[in-house]
Every structure is written in structure tokens, then in C-alpha cells.
Amino acid sequence: MDTTLRQLGVFVAIVDHEGFGAAAVALGMSQSSVSHSLASLERSVQRELVHRAAPVRPTPLGDVLLPHARATLAASRAFTAAASAHLGAAAAGSIGLAVPPTAARGLLPGLLRLWHETFPHVDVRLFEGLDEEVEEWLESGAVDAAVLVDPDPLPRGALHLATDAYEAVVRSDHPLAGEESLELADLLEDPLLATTSGCETHVKHLHALTGLPYRPTQRIRELTTLLCMVEAGLGVAIVPSLAASMLSDTLTLVPLRPHLERRLVLTGPTTRPWHPNVTAIRDLCEQHGALTPAG
After folding, report:
1. Which fold has domain 1-89?
2. What is the crossing angle of helices 5-17 and 20-27, to 10°?
3. How far from 95 is each of 12, 21, 54, 157, 256, CA to CA, in Å?
4. Exposure string (b/e) for 23-36, b if CB count within 10 Å is 16 or more?
5. Residue ranges per domain, the chain?
6. 227, 269, 8: which is closest to 135 by C-alpha?
7. Mean pLDDT by 10-residue block, N- to C-terminus, for the chain (295 residues)?
8. What pLDDT shows up at residue 1?
9. Domain 164-262 falls in which CATH fold?
10. Do 164-262 and 1-89 fall under one CATH topology?
11. What global pTM score does this model have?
């Protein structure tokens, strides 16, 4: 089987952009070249890899081979970057970084500024997803690095970026808004709105610690939607304190008892060597004092 990196790149681009035309634009190729490259790859594996109907989706075989294609492309990028670094070339190229929503809003802007000032030729492309999605993208090769929440076990070489705690979010005119801290039981008189975007496991654990039943009246995927519902007076919620950057003036955070924290760590993959630029930005963060190594 004679498979090329170009063919794998075309296959991944078609799936990611859900079409041949969009993939061609992203790759800087003609649509005809994209079609021929995929057809050649499909001849090699003797099966179709995508359904041609719009939006384009992978076939069952495509689903099986897609993670391998991503991992191969990620390893190729790292190989090229490692060779350049060995020859003394300045850090350059692009890396993909996956982050959960609260980290993207509350943590990443300052880090991106630091990385860009130090490594102006490294393009960090962000991918925002749920905690489980972020971890899956990292190990599959869809991204080169990720900010993970409370990874267990802690990946080798991971860097502790931040620790934040879970707090209640209520309207600023809510009777509890002025309290220095709240017991979880204080929230029982209001409908509990829950987010499924990675925080729910911790919120369930918080209830288990107090022996209170976890009974959300609504479960919402998008954190921004959840905050809008709290703002509309439809209930209260429990979110990480990094979500403070997402709050409007009509919402406020109040610390909760018991105190429950989460750790956010920057890491590369566990199943393949790190891209040299991931190691470079990890080392840069470690050098800037406020950030401490994890483990």
C-alpha cells in the first residue's frame, strides 16, 4: 500500500471541512486535485472513505482510519519541527491546542500574548471543546497540545497552569449575591441549572460531599447559554471561577462551601513524542514564575 502524507492530509481536510471545495480552499489546492488525491487513497485501501453527499461524512472505514491519519500527520509535523530545531532554526510553524471553554476565555488570552511575543513565527490554532473531547483530540493527533482538567494520571511533562474553585453564579440582585460564601444547601430554594460542558462531574461530586441530591432542573451544553438563563432569572448555577470573564454585570460569583478545586494543566500527548513547539511554550510558561510544574 503506497500512501502519502498529502493523501492523508486531503482526507483529513475533507472530513474537517465537510466538503471537497472547502478542503481545497484550506489546502490551497484545486478541487480536482483534492478529488484525485482522495480517490487514489481510496484505491489503496480498496474502499470509499467518505460519503459524497453534503455535508461530507466519513464511511465506517473512514471513521476507523481517520485517527490514524491524524496521528500520522501530527507525527510528521513534529518530525519536521524536531529536525529544524536540531539545526538551530527558530521555532516556526503551527500547532493545534485544545482547551475547555472556561480556560479559553479566562486563561488563554494572556498565554497567547506571551507565546506570540516570544515565538512570533509559531501559529497556535485553538480548538474549543468539552473536557472529554479535548483529551480525545490530543491522543488522536487532531491537536498537538491541550489544557486538561484534573488529568489522572498526570501526563509526564505536564505543566500546572492554574487552579480554580467551583462557585455559585447568581443574579446580582439575588438575595444571596452579597454573601461572602454560601453552603451548597443555600441554593436549594432556586432551580439548579447545570452545564454538561465538562463541569458536571465536579458539581455532582460537590453534592456527594454534602450528601445533597443532585437534581438539576435543566442540563445545558453551552456555558454561555447557561449564564444567559441565570441572567434571565430562571435559576442558579455552579461554575468554575475562571468563568468570571464570561459574566455580564448582572451576574456575580459567590464562593461555595465545601471548597472544591480543579487543576488545569498544559500537556502534549502521552502516546507519541511532543511537538518541539509544544515543549517550547511549556518551558516558556514554566519560566514565568506564576505558573508551576504539575507533579
Report:
1. Arc Repressor Mutant, subunit A (1.10.10)
2. 120
3. 16, 24, 29, 17, 37
4. bbeebebeeeebbe
5. 1-89, 164-262
6. 269
7. 90 95 94 95 94 94 93 88 80 88 86 93 90 89 92 92 94 95 95 88 93 94 92 96 92 95 94 91 83 43
8. 66
9. D-Maltodextrin-Binding Protein; domain 2 (3.40.190)
10. no
11. 0.79
Is residue 115 exposed (0-12), middle (13-18) or buried (19+ Cβ within 10 Å)?
A: buried
| Nearby residues of 260 by Cβ (< 8 Å), 6 or more positions away | 165, 166, 202, 205, 206, 209
Cell of 154: 498526570
